């Protein structure tokens, strides 16, 4: 069965950095677009970033709120998705989830499997 397990969250001061990881299993990881989504306390889900499938050229996409500060990447040999977060702000405080696309080899931005999330708290 599909499993997505996030890790790497924690407490960090404003301006600091964290790297999140998402270990994937139960499906052909390299064949799916992958996403990071977050939910801040008391707010709805916010899409953060996307990365394309396949082993060719890498395509990434970011929400305006994180563009220039966050970097999404993947290691298909390790079935792992990453999110490098730099210059963190208090408004980045949220539970971060990784998710897979519904359709193989397509970036529909529809997501059918999610992890349980990892909490990132940005505070002094």
Give a concise summary.
About 0% of the residues lie in helices and about 50% in strands.
Defining traits:
11 strands, 4-stranded antiparallel β-sheet, mainly beta, 124 residues, globular, 0% helix, single chain, 7-stranded mixed β-sheet
Q: What does this 3D model show about the protein?
A:
The structure is a single chain. The chain has 124 residues and is an all-beta fold. The protein is built from no helices and eleven strands. It has strands at 3-7, 10-12, 18-25, 34-39, 45-51, 60-62, 70-75, 80-85, 94-101, 111-114, 118-122. Strands 2, 4, 5, 6, 9, 10 and 11 form a seven-stranded mixed sheet that branches. It is globular, with a radius of gyration of 14 Å. The N and C termini lie far apart (40 Å). The relative contact order is 0.32.
Give unreliable regions as ranges: none
Fraction in beta strands: over 45%
> Main beta sheet, described?
7 strands, mixed
Termini gap: 40 Å
Shape: globular
Number of helical regions: 0
Strand-helix topology:
Layout: E1 3-7, E2 10-12, E3 18-25, E4 34-39, E5 45-51, E6 60-62, E7 70-75, E8 80-85, E9 94-101, E10 111-114, E11 118-122
Parallel strand pairs: 2-11
Antiparallel strand pairs: 1-3, 3-8, 4-5, 4-9, 5-6, 7-8, 9-10, 9-11
